[in-house]
Amino acid sequence: MLGLNLGLNLGSAALRAGAGVPWITPSTIVAEAGSGIGGAGQWRPSNAGTQTMTIDSGFTRRPGVPTLKIDASVLSPTGSYFTTFRKALSQAIALTGAQEAWVWMTPTTAGGHTIFSRVGSDAPADPPTASPANRLEQQFSNDKFQSGYWTNLYWHPNGEVYSNAQPDGVPPTPTGTPDLNNIREIEFAWNIGSATPAAERVMWLDLVAFNGRSRPAVIFGFDGFGDTSHESVVLPLCQSLGLRGYIAGDGNAAAANAAKLATFRAAGWDIISQGMDHTNYLTNPGDLSPDFDEAKGILEALSLTGALDIFAYPFNSRSLATDATLLGKGVKWARTTGGNRFPITSLGKPNPLLIGAVDMGGKSAAQIKAWIDDAKLGGYTLVLYDHTPNEAVLIEVMNYIATNRNAGLLENWVPSQHARMAA
Questions:
Q1: Do residues 151 and 339 lie in contact, with contact meaning Cβ atoms separated by under 8 Å?
Q2: Alpha carbon of 125 to those of 38, 89, 363: distances in Å?
Q3: One digit per residue, pLDDT tens: the chain, 423 residues?
Q4: For the chain, how far is it from start to end, CA to CA, in angstroms?
Q5: What is the CB neighbour count within 10 angstroms for residue 185?
Q6: Which of helix, strand or coil describes residue 227?
Q7: Is 283 exposed, middle or buried (0-12, 13-18, 19+ CB in 10 A)?
Q8: Strand order in the sheet with 135-140
Q9: 93 beta partners
């Protein structure tokens, strides 16, 4: 596994000219792995007989800072599995913004993980012996987090978590009457599908933090080099509003559409490769390396060189094997779907080779605007894509992005800009 230290490199968190708000509002760490299990001030597992919880100094996100390892692979190698683990906070703290939990979820070849992030306002025993009666819980299923890397389970008490499978969002669920101004306990519930192999029943936790955020941003783009609606509808509208995005497509379709792509590039848009022949690289990972090189050569020959280190997966077909290929090619940003929010905080960032995106195709303007509102609320980067847009929906959504941008409430970036911010 790749123990990447995905640290932050944004330079100063100085005010952005004209925006009047910091790029980064610092996060407050409320819980870390600590130095032991099951004692006062320490994490306590609920199912001590079916899991092993240890302090792991050999697998870390932050150099020299141990993590909490939860391993169900030996004592519960088969069947469905559910456990909780929790920690009392040293003092009450108000959750007025987002919660972030930095975890490593092992990729699954079958079955899968669902993790529930919880905060509670009861005064617990120390260590806590039961779930808080008054709590707020956010669910993260497999399509809502990155796996195989350190990822940020990031949610706002008043927001929702969106995905292509659940475009209307999954809001936090209260039990009892949680007091968000008096959070006293952190808890996680972890559910493992019955088909999950034993070796994949392991996760790590680095830290939990409250109330950090970054300046929200929206990145949007359209797939298909040969789609004529991009020139006739998308570009005139976006130019009238001062917005820019990206066009993604297969290298073998670039030459026939060179004039269109040159027009978009001249307007400041990124032109992004999807490899060759719209190949599913999840099932054909060995094709990615030669296809990437061939598509890159075609774009270079057309002088479309502004985003050669950016990639968009056809069929969202990433895997750990394709991640390694793109990393070896020097790719800085790659679009897929899982974990479709990108929070940059004072404590780090997710892996920019797994940029999750939400599909605008077939969605209403109200749905897409709700996604944008959540990015504004939570303080993260939202990435969108479409193919042939619905013109009425497009007009309403692009005007909404421009209005919020003009009001200083969010940024509009192209992927190559975001890649530099997320480096």
A1: yes
A2: 12, 10, 47
A3: 333 232 332 322 223 333 455 689 999 999 999 999 999 999 999 876 666 899 999 999 999 999 999 999 988 899 999 999 999 999 999 999 999 999 999 999 999 999 999 999 999 999 999 999 999 999 999 888 888 999 999 999 999 999 989 999 999 999 999 999 999 999 999 999 999 999 999 999 999 999 999 999 999 999 999 999 999 999 999 999 999 999 999 999 999 999 999 999 999 999 999 999 999 999 999 999 999 999 999 999 999 999 999 999 999 888 889 999 999 999 999 998 877 779 999 999 988 998 999 999 999 999 999 999 999 999 999 999 999 999 999 999 999 999 999 999 999 999 999 998 877
A4: 21
A5: 26
A6: coil
A7: exposed
A8: 44-45, 81-93, 183-192, 113-120, 135-140, 173-175
A9: 183
Domains of the chain: 27-211 (2.60.120.260), 217-421 (3.20.20.370)
What are residue 70's phi and psi, to 5 degrees?
A: -115, 115
Residues 372 and 401: beta-carbon distance below 8 Å: yes
Cα→Cα distances 395→360, 369, 399, Å? 13, 12, 6
Question: Alpha-carbon distance 357 to 246, whole Å?
Answer: 13
Task: Give me Rg for the CA atoms of the chain.
Answer: 22
Cα dist from 261 to 163, 236, 301, 383, whole Å? 29, 14, 13, 21
CA distance readout (Å), 374 to 117, 155, 344, 364: 18, 10, 15, 16
Which residues are CB-contacts of 240 (< 8 A; sequence separation ≥ 6)?
none
Q: What is the dihedral of CA 187, 356, 4, 288, to 10 degrees?
A: 140
Q: What six digits make up the tokens of 343? A: 């929070």
Check residue 25 and report its DSSP letter. E
3-state secondary structure of 419: helix
Question: Cis omega (within 30 of 0) on the bond before 127?
Answer: yes
Gap between the Cα atoms of 228 and 387, Å rounded: 11
